[in-house]
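Bench notes, afternoon.
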Amino acid sequence: MFKSKLRIVTLLLVVFVALAVLSGCNLLPGQTPTPTAAPTVAPTAVPTEEPTAVPNDDTQNVEETVFNYLEENVPEIAEYRDYLENNNGGTLIMRLDGTPDETSNDEFARNYQIYVGEDLGDHTSRWYSFYVNKDMDEIKVEDVVSGELISLAAWRKTL
């Protein structure tokens, strides 16, 4: 009789532990959960050459200069801004994602990389990425199908 009760208790204990493991519970009977702080999520930052660098006035001036050059030479950006504002209340976002690395063999890295898209509050949606050379006399666009850089003239033919 004692052995059968011991088997039942053992079986119940095995079932209890299995249920606890399967449900993700790591508490033993009688224990109460200890509150923990929610994990913190670092805000998304614009990539820089040195991740710890804080943007300074020079960086702001470079961004402003590149953005102005791009907007002056690509009137389609103003058209896209108007479309967003007039059709769905959206907001245009322009973000400097990279600066020219003259030592790189990568065509993308040798240019200012400008992300243009829609700011949707909790995320952004890319329209196009533009690439401006360091002398600011050439603009290329990342083709959304091939992923290659194409000339501004070739890009305009796709619109």
